[in-house]
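Re-run with default settings, no changes from the original entry. Doing this only to confirm the output is reproducible before filing.
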Amino acid sequence: MIKGGYKYNPDTLDFENTERSKAKKMLINGLSVLVSALIIAVVVFFAFVLYFNMKMKNERMRENEILQAEYEKLLKRKEQNNAYLKELIKKDEIIYKSVFKSLPDNSVFEEQNPYKRFSNYSVKQMIKDNSSRLQSVRKRVKTLDVEHLEFSKLIKKDELNKRNIPSIQPVYNYNLKYPVYGYGKRIDHVYKSLIVHPGFDFAVPEGTPVFAAADGVVEKSGRKRGLGKRIVINHNNDYKTVYAHLEDLDVRKGKTVKKGQKIGTVGMTGKTLISHLHYEVEYKNKPVNPVHYFFLDLTPQKFATIISESNKSGLSLD
């Protein structure tokens, strides 16, 4: 019996041996294993890539959701802080106006391009920085709110005291059109000797209205040697003001007066060279320079001018 595999070939009219050699079988088997391994490797690779792509995509989605949630929280905090800041601006204006009689000027804090520093920021970094700044602003807002409450209490407490401090000129001289003669050493126009002038002289026409420099009670109203007709107002906080050489006395002793209220008119009574108002400010019964008590009536420039003008003349009008 013939072993192996045979096949009849009609062209050669012979039986041909079709059995493969052992080496050829091993080669075919090896190639089959290799191809199978490659196919499995490709399948595993694509499965691995797909799995990790999905995982990274899910992680990005979760990260985006977290960032979106944080961003929405920051927006809410920003809105709250904006509301706090608007309230603070209003309170700041009230305080500034109450103390300085004007609105605050914040133009010096403006930048030409305040957003330039954000041009190279990543979204993550911007959110992180904004979150940090908002936390800082929130703490500062709370601190300022407490400070504002304390300051408001002080303002309310000192409101009466503020109105009782002399702070305006006793005659209308905002444009500084009237000559002024200041406090300090001056030459007496009668005796031609050096004297200490304890007040401030406004060379204004007769009949010019005279106003109370602060709230208070009239302590004296009448004549005094040298000063002529004069009024003394006690402001109940160690301050007193004196208005001398008056013509008309519109208030009597014991009368309560308000800052800016007309109390009389300028005259030439008493020892005087020309018609003028002699004005004194006393603190704890000692005369002080009245020019330092015009701070609500003059701008810094006009304040400097009136100081300069009052120091020019060495003559006293009293």
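DSSP finds three helices and 15 strands in the chain. Residues 218 and 233 are 4 Å apart (CA to CA).
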